[in-house]
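Write out the 3D structure for:
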Amino acid sequence: MAEKNYLAVDIGASSGRHILGHVHDQHLQLEETYRFENGMVDMGGTLYWDAPALWKHVQNGIRQSASISREIASIGVDTWGVDFALLDRAGRLLSNPVAYRDHRTDGMPEAAFEQVSRETIFAQTGLQFMQFNTLYQWIVMRRCDDPLLEMAHHFLQIPDLFHWLLSGEYINEFTNATTTQFFQPQTGTWAFDLLKAFDLPTHFLGEVTPPGTNLGGLRPALEKDLGVSMNIVLPGTHDTASAVLAVPAQSKPGEKPNWCYISLGTWALMGIESPQPIINQRVADLNFTNEGGVGNTYRVLKNITGMWILQECRRIWNQSGKNWSWGDLTAMAEAVPPLQSFIDPEAKAFFAPENMVTAIQEFCSRTGQKVPQTEGEILRCAMDSIAMRFRQVFQMCEEINGSRIETIHIVGGGTQNRSLCQAAANATGRMVITGPIEATAIGNILMQAIADGVVSDIQEARQMVRNSFPMDVFMPQDTDRWEEGYRQYRQK
């Protein structure tokens, strides 16, 4: 196999990175070429993403990558879901995208159910109900008579925006489109009837385009400015879709799996890979979602709190001058006995508090538990609670799968927290396999390689992951003690 180079631009809520993938002889080698900060910006009480700043970073990262390898076959961008940009008829950005953690959608799902029932929305979309889904952002805009809805000529989700800036092509990539809660998986098209029921415009919705689509080369002016030539190839633009492609499972896509996955970052996306959407009353009751995957699969999953609580605790402490590293904090947590107190990671108190540390302590106090005081106690409480939440959702995954799940694959940056990974094995009573860390970028790169014909299919791509990256195995420990802890967790 001739060596090929592919560039993944992986943008998360707190940072972004450019990673070159060198594919050769059934192995993949990664090289991080550029890293930048990201974050929400509060302007007048509204939280925005700074799209122009992110675009500048995308270009700078391409320049830096091209200085390392002049032969880059293609580039693809992945980000989070639900958020979007609206452009006018001339392709001008009408506003910076509003961030999903903005409070404008507080209570909006319940208000929407007064117009269209929860059951009808789920039957048409199969999507988990979360207040920041694109549907509720649009409903808020309509209720506020936001003129952008009528001014817009193009609706682009965040990775679609960057693919348009790179190529000039207006498209809506499939895996991200499915996060809107107005995509109909049964038909593979937008849920036009649902949008009409909410009196929402549809004139700016574009063609839904699958992962692996080659959009052609860079815009001529951009190619000249950047001094490099490459194609733009759609990965699974939702970061979890790319991450799941990189899960080193050995079953073929489309087979009933004996494994589930957790893509562990700020959020934890936990679910199974399915050859078709699973839309029934039990899935609705469990509030699972059907999001598009690569290779004509669906990610039947639940979006739950991941590293967010830990990240916010660290931010609060470091703002006060502590300057704790993740290694420091992990050591502190490991020095504290587990299973002393629990929080509900999904409680609204932890969605966007001013002070996460105080929120944890107040929750424990309200629920009559031992209140954690030290950094180690607070982190131990949070980690144990996240692991117990994994246990809850794991049982749901087994029920939806219809058979026993033997292995939990955890991928993403959160795998570096070995204490949390061991806690997940203890809480679920199942073997946990962790790695690769850079799953999202790997999946992005391998989708480009599949589109290029260098890798034949997803099964070969996953074999390449197993060939190329280390995995760690965590076996359950102290299961009786953790079983008792789970009963306590459920009573909080």
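The mean pLDDT is 96.
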